[in-house]
Amino acid sequence: MGNHVDKLAHLSYAEVPTAEPSGTDAEDDGARIGVSYIFSTDNDDALTDDRTDERTPPPPHELECAVYHTAACVYERRARDMRAQSAETLMSKCVPGDVLEFVAAGQSPHWAVYIGDFQVVHLHRAEVKCGFVMDAGRGRRCRIVNQLYKYEPLSANAVVRNATEHVGMKERELSWRNSECFAAWCKFGRREFKMGGELRIGKQPYKLKLLLNGKQAHELEFQSLEDAIMERRRRDRLGKPAVLHELEGQR
Prior knowledge:
Layout: E1 9-11, E2 34-40, E3 64-69, E4 72-77, E5 85-86, H1 87-90, E6 99-103, E7 110-116, E8 119-124, E9 127-132, H2 133-137, E10 141-144, H3 156-164, H4 179-188, E11 206-211, E12 216-222, H5 225-238, H6 240-250
Antiparallel strand pairs: 1-2, 2-12, 3-4, 3-11, 5-10, 6-7, 6-10, 7-8, 8-9, 11-12
Helix pairs in contact: 3-4
């Protein structure tokens, strides 16, 4: 029923480390503080990247979702955005400044910035690295995700410069919790993607909306975009069936 609140629950989440632990492949994003409730979904239409292969079905393990800052949508992922291809197929369509997302069931998405010549810059194992698309993909399927965040992007040259200037930075030098925050910062240059980029003063202006089966959604509130990203990535790693099972247990 519109935005009627059916259920309200306070969730206590553990804090996460400021960087990926050295020696691990997965980006183990933890969950953050939030408030959840269930309400009906919207059916907004949005543009998608015209390089998407419409014949490729979206992965069944992924949830549609959106992030709002007050009333404005700042991130949206619908079924049309989830179609992925092999890295070998997709890299022939990439242009410098594109943001790529590598996906596989049971893993958090891995993000990278395409800089040309089949190479990307990405945050991996607590270090900003430059390498080939195929190596960064590690066999995962890939998609171009320039359109997911709704902020105004920087020029392609600025995006590439942001990425390449940080190659070699590692561990305590890093200002980003994961590959997504790093790649999105390169693309948009916004402080919200950096650790501590927003003051946490008690208010929770960000809402993460997970679109469920039918007309319902599960919503969490956060003090920062960084926190919302961390929780969404945790749900991505769990996968849609596990998330639906988890939410059923909270009812």
